[in-house]
Structure formats: C-alpha cells, structure tokens
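This section describes the prediction task in plain terms. A model, or a person checking by hand, is given the sequence of a single protein chain and must write out its three-dimensional structure as a string of tokens. No templates, partner chains or ligands are provided. The sample shown here is typical of the held-out split.
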Amino acid sequence: MKFSCVKIAVLCLVAALVAHAAPYDPPTWRDSTWDYRSEDSTDLAGEVSYAKVAAVASLTLIAYGAAYWLVFDKGWWDEQGNHFHFENDFDYALNLDKFGHFAAGVALGEGFYEGYRWAGASEFQSYLFAGLSAMFTHIAIDVKDGYSPKWGFSVFDVLSGTLGGFLPMAERYVPLFKYVDLKWSYWINTKAYYRQSHTGVFTDDYCNQTFWASFKPYRLLPAGARKFYPSWLAIAAGLSIDEGVFIKDYEGTPHREVYIALDYDLEAFRPQSRLARTLIKWLNYFKLPAPAVQVYPEYHWFLLYPIKF
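The expected answer:
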C-alpha cells in the first residue's frame, strides 16, 4: 500500500509539472540538439566554496552511515569475517546484479554531481569528480565484501558501478545519449526473494526489478515529421529474471525475461528552471507504469507493467 501511494504521488507530481508544457515540439533548454543537461554559467556559483564542500562531505558521511545501518548491516557485515579473497559471481541472479551495481553507480554519480556543482565546481569537474566518487565508493564496499565468508571482491561489480557513476557525464557529452535513456523499475509481484532471505533488502530483489533502455523516436525523426509523433512517447526494451532464481528445488529452469513497453520521455516537456530540470532528470531514471509485452521466453501482455495483474 505504501509503495502504491508513492507511485501515485510521483504520477501526480509529473502531471503537475507537465500541465503547462506543450505536448508537441516543446522549446528545448539549450538548442535543437537537446543538450538538456547543459548548465548556464549564471545558474550556479563559479567559485568553490569550502564551507559548501564541507557540507557535502558531511552529508556524504551521514548518507553512508545511514546506508550501512539500513542495508549493509542487515547482510553479512555483522557476521564474522574471513581472509580477503576475490569472487566474480557470474552465476548470481543470472548476472542481473551487474545492472543493479550500474544503477547504484548512476544514483551516486547524480548525487555527487549535484553536490559538487552546488559547492562551486565547474560543470566538467563536477561530472568527473562524481564519477570518481562513485568508483571509490564501490571499491570501498567491495573491499569489505572481500572479507565476506559468502561473497568476495568482485572486479566486475566495481566496474559496473564505476560505469554507472560516469553515466551522467556520458549523457552530458556523448551525443548517443540524447536518443536513449537507461531506466529502472521495481514492483513486488513475487515474495520469492524474501522467503529465502530473512535479512533481504529490496536492492537484491532482482526478480522484481527490470532494467530498461528507453529509445526516443521523436528525436530521430526529420523535422517535418515530428508534428505527427508525440515528443514524450518513447519505446523501451527491458530485462528481468523470473522468481525461480530464488526458489530452491525449482521445477523449471530459471531464466531471463525480455519486455517491450511504451515509455515516457519526461525531458520532452522541457521545464526551464534549474530546479524543475533537476527533478525531471531524476524522475526520468524511473520507468513509470505503462503497457508492455513480455517477448521472451513467453508472450504476456501487461496493462501497467511492472504491475502485473
């Protein structure tokens, strides 16, 4: 019920943001190439404030402490350790966990970027330092995992998180990302993961997570054809796994699931204030409920995936 309320609140918030925006060919923030993340030099201070740097560092420490208390301490970190070792867990969750580490890196990269930019670092410096901060965070976590009796230091987990941390920078400077977004959706349709893990947290509940590549046809169309296609309508391809991954003595074979769905490009509505653009930027990482079809390994239609009913 709580999660449903959150979803409804998000949808209402998006509706309020776009209520005053034109639905077709809206004005872009910077230019016709949709350089949506580009910052005006007048948006934020151009000089580094050491007081703000200290504030960012303090908030980071508080966030890390909260993450440890709410997430990591519920896992193996409160157990007796082991000697340091490497472990590349290619069979865990059919490798969907690598997408999870990537998504965590994205969240860290965006958060650090906003902090560094607010503190007065340049746009490029903020993106660069944000990516490096996400990388060092993942290294620190996996060093701790390296002493786990069940896990180990995973080079590919660190690499996935690092790539995610640099995604915001790529979205700013690599033209490809003007035409595709990487998104995440989550809805508890099965309790299989929680039944096998009493200390489980949703970040490892991969059978209820889907990772998406959302393509923006409007931006690829010739100028004359754009008036016939909604600028906000995108097409997404998603990857998930079935619950059998977390069920012992599962009768079938655990498998990956592939989805094709409609999606919403919230950036198409082009709010002009920096606060609104930042909010839309964050919301656009979430794949909101929309019609979808599972195309592998079976065909199923869903009215508002990831909600299955």
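For orientation: Residues 1-32 have pLDDT under 50 and may be disordered.
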